[in-house]
């Protein structure tokens, strides 16, 4: 059975293939090529995440990053779709789901919702299995990060899935309601594109 993380990896690769390298994304300052490069680095060259900023090894890391980008957009998308080398621990089903399901869902929407022809009335369909997984991952960690960033006490509600409240009790309250995937987008900083209802309460 294909995991939700693997399904979202394929969805992300398909979204990237449908746009040019310089297409916008919801990740500030990143075009589609930058996002594809990010996935490849995250999968197989995590040393290049911070390496370019470090003394001594920084120059070598920057050269490696430049070489990776020079392989071309389609090559990067192919590598992002293929995933990490077989011996990497994130290939274990539990780690793959934990590390990648929400990550790849969000980044797929980063591509789709940034395009001028995106119709917010007709977002892509979300399988029930994925929706429940996103609620679980959001309510266990990512909603709390969103509340911390907003410096509010936020009650996240998704009819049919649950309610969870995050943030210090002394902070001003806020209620955010929507489907699990929309709450996740809102909590991860995509407020303008997330289809949620918000009330000060």
TrEMBL record:
Top-rank taxon, per record: Bacteria
NCBIfam families on file: maleylpyruvate isomerase family mycothiol-dependent enzyme (TIGR03083), TIGR03085 family metal-binding protein (TIGR03085)
Provenance organism: Nesterenkonia jeotgali
Lineage, broadest ranks: Bacteria, Bacillati, Actinomycetota, Actinomycetes, Micrococcales
Protein name: Mycothiol-dependent maleylpyruvate isomerase metal-binding domain-containing protein
Annotated InterPro entries: CHP03085 (IPR017519), Maleyloyr_isom (IPR017517)
């Amino acid at each position: 059975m294909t995991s939700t993380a693997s399904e979202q990896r394929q969805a992300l690769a398909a979204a990237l293939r449908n746009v040019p390298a310089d297409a916008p994304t919801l990740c500030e300052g990143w075009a589609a090529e930058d996002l594809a490069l990010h996935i490849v680095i995250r999968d197989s060259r995590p040393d290049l995440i911070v390496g370019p900023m470090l003394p001594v090894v920084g120059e070598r890391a920057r050269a490696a990053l430049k070489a990776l980008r020079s392989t071309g957009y389609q090559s990067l998308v192919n590598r992002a779709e293929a995933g990490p080398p077989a011996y990497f621990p994130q290939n274990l089903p539990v780690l793959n789901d934990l590390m990648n399901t929400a990550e790849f869902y969000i980044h797929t929407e980063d591509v789709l919702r940034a395009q001028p022809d995106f119709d917010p009335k007709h977002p892509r369909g979300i399988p029930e299995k994925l929706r429940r997984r996103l609620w679980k991952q959001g309510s266990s960690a990512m909603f709390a990060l969103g509340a911390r960033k907003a410096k509010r006490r936020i009650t996240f509600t998704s009819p049919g899935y649950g309610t969870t409240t995050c943030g210090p009790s002394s902070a001003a309250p806020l209620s955010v309601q929507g489907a699990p995937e929309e709450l996740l987008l809102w909590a991860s900083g995509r407020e303008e594109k997330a289809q949620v209802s918000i009330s000060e309460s």
